[in-house]
Amino acid sequence: MKLNVKAVNFEIAERLEKYIDKKTRRYEKLLNNPSAEMELNLTVIKPETNLNKQTKIRVIGNGPEIFAEKTCDTFEQGIDQCLEIIDRQLEKLKK
To answer: Fewer CB near the last or first residue (10 Å), C or N of the chain?
Structure first.
C-alpha cells in the first residue's frame, strides 16, 4: 500500500509522522492490495480557532473509493475518527 500525506498551511512534525505511520500500518495487511493507495490530507483552517484541523482520508484501489473527513481540535483526533469511518466502510464492503 502506498501512503501519501499532504500538509496544507503547516509543516508536519516528526511526532505526527510517527503517529500516522503507527495508525496506518495495519491497513497494509487489511487492504491486501499492493496497488492500493491511502491519501491523507491534513489542513489547518485559517484563522486559528477551535476545531481548525481538518483531516481527509481517501483509500483508492481496493474496490470502490473510500473517503472520510473530520474537523477536530487536533490532527490525532481527526485521524482516529477518520480511520474509524474507514474501518466501518471496509466492514460493509466485506459483507
So the answer is: C
